[in-house]
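note to self — DONT lose this again. spent like an hour looking for the file last time. sequence + predicted structure for the chain T wanted, 293 res
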Amino acid sequence: MAKVGLVTVLFNSEKVLPGFFQSIGGQSFTDYHLYIVDNNPNEQSDALIQGLAQSNGVTAFTYIKNDKNVGVAKGNNQGIALSVKAGTSHTLLLNNDIEFYQPSLLQSILNYSIQNNEAIVIPKIFFFDNKKIQVAGAKFLLYKGTTIGIGEGADDAPQYSIEKHVDFAPTCFALFNNQVFEKVGLMDEKYFVYYDDTDFMYRAHYLHGYEIKLLPSLHIFHKESSSTGGDRTLFSIFYGTRNRIYFIRKNFKGLQFLSSLSYTLVTRILRYVQFDSDQRAQLLKGLREGFKL
């Protein structure tokens, strides 16, 4: 029987952990090992994790305490490496600001991956607060240097309930056959946070030919941006700008490079006009750093 490594990266995640542990503890599938990578550990979070794990029956877990915030990309890489080393067949990357209520979800997504030889499988993801769709799969907008979620912000509907292949999906809940990591490699740790999954999925799809299978009958509910505060915080403005520039410079050439870079710079100018002085400073800093990486 296949065994799965579950990898989640924490940073000030105490508020969302009860729902996360309840979701995992409610699963019928138990042949997993949970790797919890904490980028800001403390006595309170340690005690909370130990208590939630015990109360929800999550006994197979490893708690990795980093001595500083090494970022989401490196945190995922730490967990992936441990999962692969332990001999698992699959690794599930999942945020901890999610909840899921279907008891057979883990079993179903793993069974589908094995029985249909699908290397990357994802569920449909809803916003936690309003239950509207966040992504029913996603796709690259290469001429813009970014991605777009299919159905984002819409009410659920039949057109979002069709099993299909997509070329992109965020890694807030994504199951990988470990052979993917052997061929594609790991996350690029230069991103720290944001665009690390975009870069990885771009390499997987366009350089190695992997497609991502959407199973819309499986549902995840995402408390988006609970750890970073949203896309208008100083943190998000800096890293979102920096990493988008870096992603374009790293992966694109020719007309695709010119189109995506031009679009990004023009839209940053428009945002600059709307921002206050602190936001403008972070945007300019992100642009400078994006061209240095």
